[in-house]
Amino acid sequence: MALQPIRKTCLFCSEKISYVDYKDTQFLRRFMSPHAKILSSNKTGSCSKHQRMIAQALKRARHMALLPFTST
């Protein structure tokens, strides 16, 4: 008998957050790897709608030089 993996719930759906602010860099760092890559929705537990919002906010923050593009 195989154990079924525990499904993570979307943080944004559970907290009823409707907008991801690109200026909140401390919050956005939760969704980045140590090498400054965007983490997948499997690892973050976010739904596809909010994963797209996270990715867009991270890209905007990078463009405005609030977050790094890469990290060594």
Automatic annotation (TrEMBL):
Signal peptide: none
InterPro entries according to UniProt: Ribosomal_bS18 (IPR001648), Ribosomal_bS18_sf (IPR036870)
Gene Ontology terms, MF aspect: small ribosomal subunit rRNA binding; structural constituent of ribosome
A Pfam family recorded for this sequence: Ribosomal_S18
Oligomeric and partner information: Part of the 30S ribosomal subunit. Forms a tight heterodimer with protein bS6.
Role summary: Binds as a heterodimer with protein bS6 to the central domain of the 16S rRNA, where it helps stabilize the platform of the 30S subunit.
Similarity remark: Belongs to the bacterial ribosomal protein bS18 family.
Protein name in the entry: Small ribosomal subunit protein bS18
Upper classification of the organism: Bacteria, Candidatus Doudnaibacteriota
